[in-house]
Specification:
This protein is of the alpha/beta class. The chain contains six helices and seven strands. It has a single domain, classed as Rossmann fold (3-Layer(aba) Sandwich). The protein is globular.
């Protein structure tokens, strides 16, 4: 996958950690190549956390995680739509995306795969495609949510980029019980995707729209 120099790349994450899970290694690679990355999480889940937990827990964790990947603090944008209720706020989410389109005008947008069965992920995928009609759009994978996934595009990763992804996900202490956040899982998936293209490690994406 060839990307023009100094591209603006926008990561749309339904919830904090989704962007790192789907394309954390690629984010690290793109930054080292000189591209500018913007990361938007549409929920920091304040009303979904246990009552004993600081409501800002995930906002703090995503800030640390994206910093490890090299994303500038000013390029991290956080919203707090209620988890599992994105469909109720579909128009509000679309309007926020249109503001992002006008202010950033990204060359490439990463969204959850169109086959992702999580209701919030579906909204971000669908509205992302609607809002960013003039950008290339790639879908990232979350195997535990994907009924199917078309591996049409790959990003080669080196060991350091994969380690950055793992380090960033380790910042989500509040989510450490999630099996898909384990280093073993992240490594194994990168190995599988690497085998598919004859490289050590990789991340795979669905091509939703590619503008040359």
């Amino acid at each position: 996958m060839n990307i023009k120099q100094n591209s603006k790349i926008l990561i749309l994450a339904p919830h904090t950690d989704d962007g790192e899970l789907g394309c954390g290694g690629s984010i690290s690679k793109f930054i080292t190549e000189g591209h500018e990355i913007f990361y938007v999480a549409f929920s920091i889940c304040t009303r979904s956390l246990p009552p004993e937990m600081d409501p800002q827990t995930l906002a703090i964790e995503v800030s640390k995680a994206t910093s490890i990947l090299g994303i500038k603090k000013e390029n991290l944008i956080l919203f707090d739509f209620d988890v599992r209720k994105f469909k109720e706020f579909r128009q509000d989410i679309l309007e926020e995306m249109i503001k992002l389109k006008n202010s950033i005008n990204p060359d490439i947008v990463f969204v959850p795969s169109p086959t992702d069965i999580h209701q919030d992920h579906q909204v971000i995928s669908e509205e992302g495609l609607r809002a960013f009609k003039t950008s290339s759009v790639l879908g990232y994978e979350m195997p535990w949510n994907n009924v199917t996934f078309n591996t049409r595009s790959f990003v080669r990763l080196d060991k350091n980029q994969l380690e950055k992804k793992i380090q960033s996900l380790n910042e989500y202490k509040s989510q450490s019980n999630r099996t898909y956040l384990s280093s073993e899982f992240i490594l194994s998936l990168a190995l599988v995707r690497g085998v598919q293209i004859g490289h050590k490690y990789a991340e795979a994406f669905e091509v939703i729209r590619w503008i040359i």
